[in-house]
Amino acid sequence: MSDIKVGIIMGSQSDLPVMAEAAKFLEEIEVGYELTIVSAHRTPDRMIDYAGKAREKGIKVIIAGAGGAAHLPGMVASLTTLPVIGVPVKSSNSIDGWDSILSILQMPSGIPVATVALNGAKNAGILAASIVGAFDETVGNRMEAFKRSMKAKVEDSAEEVEQ
Ligand code: RP5
């Protein structure tokens, strides 16, 4: 069985600077992932193929990022029973990113996409690792350590400003 647990896909290479944040977190937490470009509009057949094969590849959760008329996360969610996390990407011709946010967030009943904030790919990586960690004790323990380290940072900074 492959150790790739998370599939990261995005509509265009122009989304990569944002989506790389998800990959970076998964690397830090040592969760296997694969990353590729799949466009809902320009390569619909590739999208159908990706969604159809994801589960048999061992993927447990898909992170899908897109901007503008951002149909990739929702369409992938319609094609798989794996959980899909959507990352609205603020693309250059965006109307402040609201096009990306609303087209990923406003899914019809029955086909949810767990939508993170605009350009919130790091949180998508954290959420994906949490989902994997719910069933994988090693990853779950690493997520516990990650939370503890965030807590310690806040406590340290509080001590610093209180002095
Ligand atoms: C979407 O359109 C992509 O996800 C990207 O955010 C946006 C612009 O794509 P490019 O024109 O840069 O390829 O499909």
Automatic annotation (TrEMBL):
Q: Which SUPFAM superfamilies match?
A: N5-CAIR mutase (phosphoribosylaminoimidazole carboxylase, PurE)
Q: Which HAMAP family match?
A: PurE_classI
Record protein name field: N5-carboxyaminoimidazole ribonucleotide mutase
Family (UniProt): Belongs to the AIR carboxylase family. Class I subfamily.
Q: Which organism is it from?
A: Cyclobacterium plantarum
Top-level taxon: Bacteria
EC code(s) of this entry: 5.4.99.18
Q: Which residues form a coiled coil?
A: none
Keyword match Lyase: yes
The segment(s) forming the PurE domain are: 4-154
NCBIfam families given in the database record? purE
- Fetch the Gene3D superfamilies from UniProt: 3.40.50.1970
Pathway(s)? Purine metabolism; IMP biosynthesis via de novo pathway; 5-amino-1-(5-phospho-D-ribosyl)imidazole-4-carboxylate from 5-amino-1-(5-phospho-D-ribosyl)imidazole (N5-CAIR route): step 2/2
Keyword Lyase tagged: yes
Residues binding substrate: 12, 15, 42
Report keywords, A-Z: Isomerase, Lyase, Purine biosynthesis
**GO MF, one annotated term:** phosphoribosylaminoimidazole carboxylase activity
> What does this gene product do?
Catalyzes the conversion of N5-carboxyaminoimidazole ribonucleotide (N5-CAIR) to 4-carboxy-5-aminoimidazole ribonucleotide (CAIR).
Which reaction is the catalytic activity of this chain? 5-carboxyamino-1-(5-phospho-D-ribosyl)imidazole + H(+) = 5-amino-1-(5-phospho-D-ribosyl)imidazole-4-carboxylate
